[in-house]
Every structure is written in structure tokens, then in C-alpha cells.
Specification:
Layout lengths: L1 H13 L4 H14 L3 H18 E4 L2 E4 L1 H7 L5 H17 L6 H25 L1
Antiparallel strand pairs: 1-2
Helix pairs in contact: 2-5, 5-6
């Protein structure tokens, strides 16, 4: 149990944004989801996705396929697509700079893309 808590803390630290990244995320979120209720719904989904479906594998963050399979529902697809759009938009806005925030945004984009693909394959049956 302590190992699991430690792993969750490590993942959270890896995905922690700095001030510039947090500001950029807020701007892109407002651009992509102008409605405050929709923003909060996506933020809630994102928080749940990050705490439930992301794990540590070989010193990197990765999609936990087993946890995601249990978590995922077909209605999550638009939220996953929006996550790709938002996080990839943050990467572009930062010019792909090699700094911590940009690496986090790239990582989250990849995780959302992976989850999207898993969900699409699940729905095919």
C-alpha cells in the first residue's frame, strides 16, 4: 500500500506543471471550452484519468491499460479527444520548447492518444 502511494506521488510530481504551464493550460482550456461548466467537467475527467489510468513503468509514466479498460466508457471519447486538442495546443503554444512543462504536455498528449486508441479498439468489439 505504501509503495502504491509512493508511486502515485511520483506520477503526480512528474506531471506537475510550473506557473507558465499552468497559465498556458488555463488559456487553452478557455479557448477550447469557453463554457465554464464544460471546463470543470473536463478538468474533473482529466484529474480522474490522471489518478486512475496512469502508472509508472520502467521509470516513465504510461497508460495503465488494465485500469483504463475498467475505467473507460464510450462517452469518454469526446473528452479524450478534447484532452489531445488541449494538451497538443499547449505544446504548440510553447513552441515545442524542451522544458519541463512542454515535456509534461507532450506526455499527456501521448497518454490521451493511447487511451483514445484503446477505447476505439474496445468499441469495435
Amino acid at each position: 500500500m505504501a509503495e502504491d502511494a509512493s508511486r502515485k506521488q511520483w506520477i503526480a510530481a512528474c506531471l506537475q506543471l510550473g506557473a507558465k504551464g499552468s497559465d498556458m493550460l488555463k488559456i487553452l482550456l478557455e479557448e477550447n471550452l469557453p463554457d465554464g461548466v464544460a471546463q470543470q467537467g473536463w478538468r474533473d475527467f482529466d484529474r480522474l484519468f490522471q489518478t486512475t489510468c496512469i502508472t509508472e513503468k520502467d521509470g516513465n509514466v504510461a497508460l495503465d491499460n488494465e485500469a483504463f479498460t475498467a475505467f473507460a466508457k464510450a462517452e469518454h471519447l469526446p473528452l479524450l479527444q478534447k484532452g489531445v486538442q488541449i494538451y497538443n495546443g499547449c505544446v504548440r503554444a510553447l513552441g515545442g520548447a524542451e522544458n519541463h512543462d512542454c515535456r509534461v504536455f507532450k506526455c499527456l498528449t501521448q497518454l490521451y492518444l493511447s487511451a483514445q486508441m484503446v477505447l476505439k479498439f474496445q468499441s469495435r468489439g
